[in-house]
Amino acid sequence: xxxxxxxxxxxxDEFHLLLKEPQTASYSVEIWKxxxxxxxxxxxxxxxxxxxxxxREIENxxxxxxxxxxxxxxxxxxxxxxxxxxxxxxxxxxxxxTNPGEGLLFFGNVTIPFIDKFPKETxxxxxxxxxxxxxxx
Length: 137
Prior knowledge:
Elements: E1 9-13, H1 22-37, E2 41-45, H2 49-53, H3 58-63, E3 67-70, H4 75-85, H5 89-92, E4 102-107, E5 110-115, H6 123-128
Parallel strand pairs: 1-2
Antiparallel strand pairs: 3-4, 4-5
């Protein structure tokens, strides 16, 4: 916990971009470790898994991550992720050509397949959707 006794969530979208350059990659790993030490919850978000996995620093981040939320992955990404995260062929089926809201949760040493059929006719869905055709101005 930080001095105010509150957990701080830190979201980094397009996280793979920070791992491209050595200086920002090194700084990102340092942030990751310190935030966790202080009770913070860093969250890296990316659609470009290959770019993320190309970074030498990603091992440090994976080792300091208790939770991974994985949706459908491209074939090459699945192979690399399976090697790095020790994902079985059966488990890979949950991130192979799946529907939106389906995938795998990794929490510690537990891997859980999930299906999240979030109701579209709610205010919360309209606020959270990232589909351009569903975003109202």
